[in-house]
Amino acid sequence: MGQIAIVGIDCRFPGAPDAGAYWELLMRSGDGVGQVPGQRWDAAEFHSPTAAEGHSNTTEGGFIEDPDAFDNEFFTISPREAAAMDPQQRLLLQCAWRAVEDAGLPPQKLAGTRTGVFVGIMGNEWAQLHLTDYARVTAQVGSGNGYCMTANRISYHLDLKGPSLAVDTACSSSLVAVHLAANALLAGECDHAIAGGVNVALTPALSIFYTQAGLSAPDGRCKPFSSEANGIGRGEGVGAVVLRRLEDALADGQQVYAVIRGTAVNQDGRSNGLTAPNRWAQQEVLEHAYERAGVEAADMVFTEGHGTGTALGDMMEVKALGHHHAGRTGKPMALGSVKGNLGHTEGAAGIAGLIKVALSLHHRTVPPSRFAVKENQQLKLREHGLRLLKAPLKLANTPSLAGLSSFGMGGTNAHAVLESAPAHAVRPRSAGSAGSGGDAGTGIGCAVFTLTAPTPDALRRNLVRQADELSRRRLPVGALSWSGNRVKSGHRYRFAMPAGDTGELVRGLREAAADPDRLARFTGAPTARPRTAFLFTGQGSQYPRMTARLYQDSPLYRRFLDEADAALRPHTQGSVRDLILAGDEAVHRTAWAQPALFAVGYALGRTLQELGVRPGLLLGHSVGEYAAACLGGVFPLEGAARLIAARGALMQELPDGGGMLAVLAGREVLADRLAGEDQVGIAVVNGPQAVVLSGELAALRRVEKDLGRDRFRTRMLKVSHAFHSYLMDPMVERFAKVAEEVGGGIPELPVYSTVYGRRLDGEAMDAAYWTAHIRQPVLFGDAASQLLDDGPGQAVELGPSPVLTSMARKIGPPKSGPRPAFVLPVRNAESGGRDLAQALSDLYRGGADPDWDAAYTEAERTPQRLPLYAFSDEHRYWTRGPVRSAQTPREDFPYGPAANSAPGAAADGGASGGARAATPVLVLNRPAAADPVAEAVLEAIGQVGGYETSELAPHLRLYEELGFDSVMVMELKNRIEERLTGIGPLTVQDLLPVLSSVGDLVNYLCARDASAAGAGIEERTA
Question: Is residue 171 annotated as a catalytic residue, yes or no?
Answer without folding.
Answer: yes
